[in-house]
Amino acid sequence: LDMMHQVKITNVRSESHTDILPDEQPGSLGVCGWILFIVSLLLTVATLPVTIFMCVKIVQEYERAVMFRLGRIVDKKPKGPGLFFVLPCTDTFVKVDMRTVSFEIPPQEILTKDSVTASVDGVVYFRVNCPVSSVVSVSNADFATRFLAQTTLRNVLGTKNLAELLSDREGISQSMQESLDEATELWGIKVERVEIKDVKLPQQLQRAMAAEAEATREARAKVIAAEGEMNASRALKEASLVIAESPSALQLRYLQTLNTIAAENNSTIVFPIPIDILQPFLHK
């Protein structure tokens, strides 16, 4: 039953969207409309060339014009770029900018999944994909997209915990872009990119996280120092075994130490002579 209800809702939305957009089912002007159109055309021709400046309009390369004739959209696509003609009495038009527009999402106080309050802001990049839908389907597509971006930011971040909020910004931006793009498709808006700018946490939470990070670094430093002591003790053990196997190696080590001490002239050092050197003299 739920699936059937959703299908019905989808069909109603699609039918209502079709009724709003006259591109697919253009309506007739009617008898009165055609009379007004013919009268306006005759007056325009009769007052030439004065009315030529009122009839010729220019649309820039990055703009499109959605033209209405007696309240109905003319043709199935917008006018432009370049020159197009309008009748002063019956035709009106709305210019739509097709360039990419960016706006900042004001800082939003959100509550994460693990009950942490944070202030998050972002940037949204969008452009008009269908000029006719952006004029007919919504009163102000720009403001509607801005307000929708704020609510979408709260809804998406409400399902994330603090760790995901700090580490998975790319995933959050992708989720927001998909949600916004799906919602603004009927408005003729294409959301190109969403970026999370800054995440501000309370001061107490920042101090707690800094203390936690410091404790983690100290623990890691102690582990590294302990591993270094263990490796050094193993190296000393292996060196002692090598020296024990060769007495001449011990004598060379003594001589090397004496050479090192001799290079330091600013102090007096008493160095014990190994008993192995005196063994021949003791026998004599």
Automatic annotation (TrEMBL):
Alphabetical list of InterPro entries matching this protein: Band-7_stomatin-like, Band_7, Band_7/SPFH_dom_sf, Band_7/stomatin-like_CS, Stomatin_HflK_fam
Cellular compartment(s): Membrane
Annotated signal peptide: none
SMART domains for this protein: PHB (SM00244)
Residue ranges crossing the lipid bilayer per the database entry: 34-59
Annotated keywords: Membrane, Transmembrane, Transmembrane helix
GO cellular component, one term: plasma membrane
DNA repair as UniProt keyword: no
One Pfam family cited in the UniProt record for this chain: Band_7
Residues covered by the Band domain: 54-213
Family from the record: Belongs to the band 7/mec-2 family.
Identification of the protein by name: Band 7 domain-containing protein
Organism: Denticeps clupeoides (denticle herring)
Chain's gene name: LOC114802172
